Amino acid sequence: MSTNEPIPVTRSSMPDFDEYVEEIRSLWGSRWLTNMGAKHRQLEDELCTYLKTPNLALFSNGHLALEAAIQSFGFDSGEVITTPLTFASTTHAIVRSGLEPVFCDVDPADGTLDVQMLDSLVTDKTVMILPVHVYGNICDVDAIDAIARRYDVPVVYDAAHAFGTTYKGVGVANLGDASMFSFHATKVFNTIEGGAVSFRDPGLRRQLDLLKNFGITGPETVEAVGGNAKLNEFQAAMGLCNLRHIDEDILRRKVLAQQYGRRLSGLEGVRILEPRHGVQSNFSYLPAVFDGVQLTRDDVFERLQTAGINARKYFSPLTTDYACYRDRFDSRSTPVAAGLAQSVLTLPLFADLALDDVDRICDAVAAGHSADDMVKLATPCAR
Ligand code: T4K
Fold it and tell me: Can you list the positions of beta strands (E) in 135-187?
C-alpha cells in the first residue's frame, strides 16, 4: 500500500485473478456448485495435510462451525466455561446451543483463559470448556487439558484466529477435543466466508455432517434436526488458491510484526500481547495494550483515525457487556478482561501491508508522546 492511502485494520488476501478463474473453470462443465462437491473434498483433504490433522469438516462460516462443534457433543443443558474477551460469535454460539456461559478471567500477558480461575469455576453443572486462542495466542493448553481430564469434560477451542499456529511443535488442530477455525475474508487464511472443525474422535464426524446438512443421510432419510452450513464450490476454490500462498503470507506478516515490535518496544506506555513461549505464531493480529498513563487507548485510536489509519478495538466491549446480555452477565467478575477491553487496540496487519506503513502507524501512535520518548522511537533500527 502507498504511504498516503487510508490503512484498514486488515485486508483480504486474494490470489491473482487468473489463478482463481482457472480454479473455478471446471464448475461451468460440472455445474456442481455446492453440497460437498469435488473442490470441497479436495480442500478438506489439503487442509488435513496442511494442519496435520486426520479429522476436519468444512463449514460455510466459522460461527456455524462453532455451533456445530458445541452441539456435536450432545448436551441439552449445562454450563460452558469461556472467556468474554472475544468476538460475539463465541458467546452467542454457546447461548444459541441452549447452554449457559460461565465467564472466566484472562491472563494479562496474552489475553487467553486464566487457568487458575478456570479450575475454581468447574462445578457439577460444567459440561464443556470453551477457551479462545485469542489473536492467535495459544491458550495454556497443558493446564486446560489437565483440568478437563480431572473433571472429565470436553474442551472445544475457538481457534478462529489460530490457523496454522503450533504449540511445542503440535499443530493447533490437534489440541483439545475439537477446534473451530474461521476462514472469513478478514482471516489469515480465507475462503471468503468459511470455517472448519477439527476433532479428536473420528466418531464426531457423523454428528458434524448431520448438523451441517439438515440431518440428511440419504435421498429419503433424515435422521437429525440439522441446519444448512455447507461451504460452496466457489468458496472452496478460493481456499484452494489461498492455501498455495499461505506460508508466504504468514512470513510477510511475521516481518511486519517484527517491525512493529522494534518500533514499539522502546516506547513507554504500550506493550504487545505476545503468545506464550513455545507458540509458533501466524501473526494474525497485532494487539497493542496502552497503559492509560503515558498513552491512552482512546487517544491513540482517535489519532490514528485522523491519520487515516483504521485500528480496531477488538475486543471491546466484552461480550458480557453487550446490550443483548444486559442484566444476565456481569463483567466485574472478569476484571483483567475488563481492563484489556478498555486498553487494547489491534493495529493494522495484513500480508500486503508495506513496512513503510508500519512506520507511519508507529509514528502516529508515538505522536502523543513526550519529546524524550520520540527520540527513542526515532532511533534507526535494522530491517
Ligand atoms: N470466534 C472468534 C474469536 C472470531 O473472531 C470470529 C470472527 C468468529 C468466532 C466467527 O467466525 P466467522 O463466522 O466470522 O467465520 C470481523 C469478521 O467479520 C469476523 O470474522 C471476525 N471474527 C471479527 C474479529 O472481525 P468486523 O465486523 O469487525 O469486520 P469488518 O467488516 O468491519 O471488516 C474489518 C476490516 O477488514 C475492514 O475494515 C476491511 C477488511 N475487509 C473486510 C471484509 C468484510 C476486507 O479486506 N475484505 C472483506 O471482505 O468482523
Answer: 156-158, 166-167, 170-171, 178-182
CB-based contact 301:364 (threshold 8 Å): no
Taking the centre of ligand 1 as the mean of its atom positions, its distance from the CA of residue 186, in whole angstroms, is: 5
Residue whose C-alpha cell is 503440535: 170
Residue of the CA atom closest to atom 5 of ligand 1: 87
Q: Is 9 in the pocket of ligand 1 (CB under 6 A)?
A: yes
Residue nearest (by alpha carbon) to ligand 1 atom 11: 62
Contact 33, 232 (CB under 8 A): yes
Q: Nearest-CA neighbor of 166 among 155, 179, 176, 175? A: 175
Q: What is the mean pLDDT of residues 314-326?
A: 97
Is 133 close to ligand 1, i.e. is its CB under 6 Å away? no
Query: Residue 68 in contact with residue 215, Cβ under 8 Å?
Result: no
pLDDT of residue 383: 32
Q: Is the CB of 185 under 6 A from ligand 1?
A: yes
CA-to-CA separations, 153 to 4, 146, 170, in angstroms, rounded? 52, 10, 22
Cβ(318)–Cβ(331) below 8 Å? yes
Whether the CB of 91 sits within 6 Å of ligand 1: no
CA of residue 185 to ligand 1 center, whole Å? 7
- Residue of the CA atom closest to atom 25 of ligand 1: 186
Q: Which residues contact 35 (CB under 8 A, 6 or more apart)?
A: 213, 230
Q: What angle do CA 115, 116, 120 make, to 5 degrees?
A: 110
For residues 291 and 256, what is the distance between their CA atoms, to the nearest angstrom?
23
| Cβ–Cβ under 8 Å, residues 346 and 290 | no
Q: What is the mean pLDDT of residues 113-139?
A: 98
Q: Which atom of ligand 1 is nearest to the CA of 89?
A: 9
What's the pLDDT tens digit per position in 148-198? 999 999 999 999 999 999 999 999 999 999 999 999 999 999 999 999 999
Q: Are 184 and 61 in contact (CB under 8 A)?
A: yes
